[in-house]
């Protein structure tokens, strides 16, 4: 049994580090909690889900990552739904989701609820750090007023900082331990306190920003940069497809230029909790300040169109063979938004499935990493039932599909939504193949 009162020494200083409370124990908060515990902090994690709390206290990660599961067993994270534990902490980290609604409007409810939860238990000298991704202004316009409903004032006797998370699920090279971070605060004292915390646990540079608003802008800027570049290459893929040009070959040629080019790749859609979400926070906030982000809005429109474009590719390929979409059962390969993880947040697979439903098409779903949401237990079972395939996730299990085997099983068409397969092999096997821009 874990010793819930044990306090590890800081490996750098040899002294106890103190207590940190982390609100939100998902893809962002739980790795941070493990790292802080490993580095000597006593860690309380606050969550709402009783099942998640029980799992963490039993040393089992509710986040489906094997490395995180092993890590949690080696550290001492105390999970609870009781916000009063923040009284014991010198550092309070808020790491809750920042979603958008069905109309792509930013939803700050989780952040508001988290801050309202900690507010009654604040004490003098504590530092509250937001890791959730937000638009510039949220810390000062939303979080600060909530915290100051207490008897304390931010910058005087409590402190507020922002260190936007940088997590890439499944990435073994870049983790919460070694990804460089940026940090901003409402005042110099808060910046110094937050900087000392992160420098004590993260084995990478921490860049202080001149203001908390600049720190908020960094993460939005990073993900908007990726979004507009992916939108550019997705639009080029649509264009090149009409011209009979293989987009991947063009990108490979462009990459030979040793400067001023950064390769991005087309796909059936963008998933994850950052790129499809974060630009909307900036779009909405800028609009309230009288500025319209036309470029960001267009990028979002293009990238949001890719699941429908993918289904259109399948319809076109089947029409060439005089087969109606509702006359075949379609196999969806993958629900996760990226390869070799079980993370389905904002996955474009769900949009493809929704579109197939609108067409009245029959389908089966298989993702070896997400078995509970799959409609079949194995790839073999899916192939027995389907005549057309859409590859939505480039899991290792899918990257080596044998076109001859698929042909023998009656597969007539495959849409490669990740451009992960060998186009020529499928064409030689007599299977109609389409990639995104290929």
What can you see in these coordinates?
This protein folds into 2 domains: 19-210, Rossmann fold; 216-438, Rossmann fold (3-Layer(aba) Sandwich). Helices cover 38% and strands 13% of the residues. With 438 residues, it is an alpha/beta fold. The strands form 2 sheets. Strands 3-2-1-4-5-6-7-8 form an 8-stranded mixed beta sheet, with helices on both faces.
Tell me about the largest β-sheet.
Answer: 8 strands, mixed
Q: So what's the CATH class of the largest domain?
A: Alpha Beta
Strand proportion: 5-15%
End-to-end C-alpha gap:
56 Å
Order of SSEs: EHEHHEEHEHEEHEHHHHHEHEHEHEHE
Question: How many distinct domains?
Answer: 2
> Widest sheet: strand order?
3-2-1-4-5-6-7-8
Counting DSSP E segments of at least 2 residues, the number of strands comes to: 13
Q: Which structural class do you get from the secondary structure elements?
A: alpha/beta
Shape: elongated
The number of distinct helices, counting runs of at least 4 residues, comes to 15
State the fourth-level CATH superfamily of the largest domain.
NAD(P)-binding Rossmann-like Domain
CATH topology of the largest domain: Rossmann fold
CATH architectural type of the largest domain = 3-Layer(aba) Sandwich
Helix content: 25-40%
Any idea what the radius of gyration is?
24 Å
Question: What is the mean predicted local confidence, pLDDT?
Answer: 94
Identify low-pLDDT runs. 1-16
């Amino acid at each position: 049994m874990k010793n819930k009162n044990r306090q590890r020494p800081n490996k750098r200083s040899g002294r106890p580090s103190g207590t940190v409370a982390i609100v939100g124990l998902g893809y962002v908060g739980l790795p941070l909690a493990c790292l802080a515990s490993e580095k000597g902090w006593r860690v309380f994690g606050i969550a709402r889900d009783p099942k998640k709390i029980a799992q963490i206290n039993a040393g089992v990660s509710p986040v489906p990552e094997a490395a995180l599961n092993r890590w949690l067993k080696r550290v001492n994270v105390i999970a609870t739904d009781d916000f009063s534990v923040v009284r014991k902490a010198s550092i309070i980290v808020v790491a809750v989701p920042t979603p958008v609604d069905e109309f792509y409007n930013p939803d700050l409810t989780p952040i508001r609820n988290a801050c309202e939860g900690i507010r009654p238990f604040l004490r003098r000298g504590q530092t509250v750090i937001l890791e959730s991704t937000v638009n510039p202004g949220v810390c000062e316009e939303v979080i600060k007023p909530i915290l100051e409903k207490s008897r304390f004032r931010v910058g005087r006797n409590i402190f507020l900082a922002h260190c936007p998370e940088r997590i890439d699920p499944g990435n073994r090279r870049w983790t919460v331990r070694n990804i460089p971070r940026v940090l901003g605060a409402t005042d110099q004292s808060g910046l110094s306190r937050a900087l000392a915390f992160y420098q004590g646990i993260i084995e990478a540079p921490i860049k202080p920003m001149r203001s908390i608003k600049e720190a908020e802008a960094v993460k939005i800027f990073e993900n908007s940069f990726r979004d507009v570049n992916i939108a550019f290459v997705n639009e080029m893929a649509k264009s090149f497809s009409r011209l009979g040009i293989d987009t991947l070959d063009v990108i490979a040629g462009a990459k030979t230029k040793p400067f001023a080019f950064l390769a991005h790749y087309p796909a059936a859609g963008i998933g994850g909790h950052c790129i499809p979400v974060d630009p909307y926070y900036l779009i909405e906030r800028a609009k309230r300040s009288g500025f319209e982000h036309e470029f960001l809005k267009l990028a979002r429109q293009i990238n949001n169109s890719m699941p429908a474009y993918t289904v259109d590719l399948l319809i076109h390929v089947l029409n060439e063979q005089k087969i109606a979409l509702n006359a075949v059962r379609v196999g969806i390969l993958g629900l996760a938004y990226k390869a070799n993880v079980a993370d389905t947040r904002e996955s474009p697979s769900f949009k493809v499935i929704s579109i197939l439903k609108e067409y009245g098409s029959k389908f089966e779903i298989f993702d070896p990493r997400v078995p509970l949401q799959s409609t079949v237990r194995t790839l073999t079972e899916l192939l027995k039932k389907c005549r057309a395939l859409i590859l939505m996730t480039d899991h290792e299990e899918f990257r080596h599909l044998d076109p001859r085997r698929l042909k023998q099983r009656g597969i007539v068409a495959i849409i490669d939504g990740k451009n992960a397969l060998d186009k020529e092999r499928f064409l030689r096997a007599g299977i109609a193949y389409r990639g995104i821009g290929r």
